[in-house]
Amino acid sequence: RKARLMAHEGIRFIVNTDVGRDVSVHELMDNYDAVVLCCGAKQPRTLNVSGMDANGVYFAVDFLTSVTKSLLNSNLQDKKCVSASGKNVVVVGGGDTGNDCVGTCIRQGCNSVVQLEMMEPLPKTRSKNNPWPQWPKVLKTDYGQEEAIAVFGKDPRVYCTTVKNIIADESNNIKQIVTVELKWERNPETGRFSPVEIEGSEKVLDCDLLLIAAGFTGCEEYVSQEFEVETTERNCIKTGKGSYKTENPKVFAAGDARKGQSLVVWAIAEGRECAKEVDRCLMGYSNMI
């Protein structure tokens, strides 16, 4: 409904178009007075381990997208999605996306599922330094873990553990992974905590499908390269302090592309504020609220 209203107001939507392939950046820059980059932070965080090129290793969003498309297009009858049916699945990442992977794999009929989390488990109740009205930093069991407990009789989460190596067969199909336990140590100079491997804690797990849900590292590199704009150390598009404008006066950025992976409410807020700034730059003033 909102899209129809916006189109009626004169906004032109050009869909299924990849800037840099279907339309050139130079064409956009020549034909428009301002370009706003709101392309998200879709560059997935990878694992720096050997065997990442093995068949059966997928980033979580690619896996979930394939399943959703197959469900919407054919009610899963086209067999075009990545399937966890009958497989031993390992999910790397303890966030919401990792939870979605766990739940989806169970509904597909996986043989087993393990969810690896680098961090320590949160407390079951609020700690003294996390009082109301702060957001409660407590352990939660989401629907994916609840379904795993119901089907397999145990919580799939394994804390302070990550993948150390991927083992593939002669056809380069993943068959096992080597995990290692971690401990978090504080750097006395910086005060920051970082994970350290615990020597001798390696374990071998059977794995036919490895799903990486370890977050995102910023916007896709070709976006900043094509538009010739700077990026931050987090690989997000760099803008001026308190501004949405890049060093190119015609290029702006907002949302996850500028801020990094976040929530949709931030994307909405940044989109509105960025629109005001573009309006002021082009018109000299803005009546936008």
From TrEMBL:
Residues covered by the FAD/NAD(P)-binding domain: 24-271
A GO molecular-function annotation: oxidoreductase activity
Pfam families membership: Pyr_redox_2
Domain of life: Bacteria
Coiled-coil blocks: none
PANTHER family assigned to the protein according to its UniProt record, in alphabetical order: GLUTAMATE SYNTHASE [NADPH] SMALL CHAIN
Protein name: FAD-dependent oxidoreductase
Species this chain originates from: Candidatus Limousia pullorum
